[in-house]
Amino acid sequence: xxxxxxxxxxxxxxxxxxxxVVSTSLRAAGDPHRYIMGCMLPDVAQIAxxxxxxxxxxxxxxxxxxxxxxxxxxxxxxxxxxxDFSTAVEWCNDVENKEIADVLCMKLLRYFNQADKLWLHLxxxxxxxxxxxxxxxxxxxxxxxxxxxxxxISHALNDYAASASSTGLKSFAISLTED
Length: 179
Description:
The protein is an all-alpha fold. The chain has 2 domains: 1-82, no CATH class; 85-179, no CATH class. The chain is 65% helix and 0% strand. The chain contains 11 helices and no strands. α4 (55-62) packs antiparallel against α5, α5 (68-77) packs parallel to α7 and α10 (151-163) runs antiparallel to α11. The chain is globular and about 50 Å long.
């Protein structure tokens, strides 16, 4: 099956799992996507499991910027052994909201072999969403035990918190040092 046929099939599956209540709530909360089916994360995961991980398919889904569920599915279909640092940074630079950031970290980036470098790179970016992704990724890495809170990580978080322009991100960084 060609990429376009796969995407069409995936979108049809999203339509069959659509949830108007969730969709309406997401729109009311300011979700930036034009197409929101309101699929729950487990539903998107179930749909994604019907397809083999494929970097081309995942990239094509990721390119569907106006479609919430496509963006989420892309994070589940990118083969982790094919992800490189520049692609990871490119995807982070393309994140449009915290929901997509959270799913990107949870479903893809925390398994990335360079995640320990990526989080640090991201918190030093100018973009607040990238800083958020960096902190969220670190939180994921600490939670699953891929990293532990060392003096170097605590120092990096304290330095970040001292210069963070966002009170929320500053609090987030500080909370990570308290665990």
